[in-house]
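I am writing to request your help with a piece of structural work I have in hand. I set the record out below, with my sincere thanks for your time.
___
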Amino acid sequence: MPASAEFVATITWVLPDRPLSREIEQVLRAGYLRGADLWHLACAIHVASKSRDLAFLTRDRRQAEVARQLGFAS
């Protein structure tokens, strides 16, 4: 199902002003991921530090498991 224009308009880029080394280490302590899956969760942790209401949505089973280990609702 295509996303509505209103929904897409609410999405913004995550542009950290520092390396996400701490967040990457945190993800890897919760479970093994690599590449974009690892980066997406590290970015989510970075953003979640500013918003505790963040749910992590993914269709990837392993990424979802690690996200739950990190405390994200899914």
Observations:
- Helices lie at 5-9, 21-30, 35-48, 61-69.
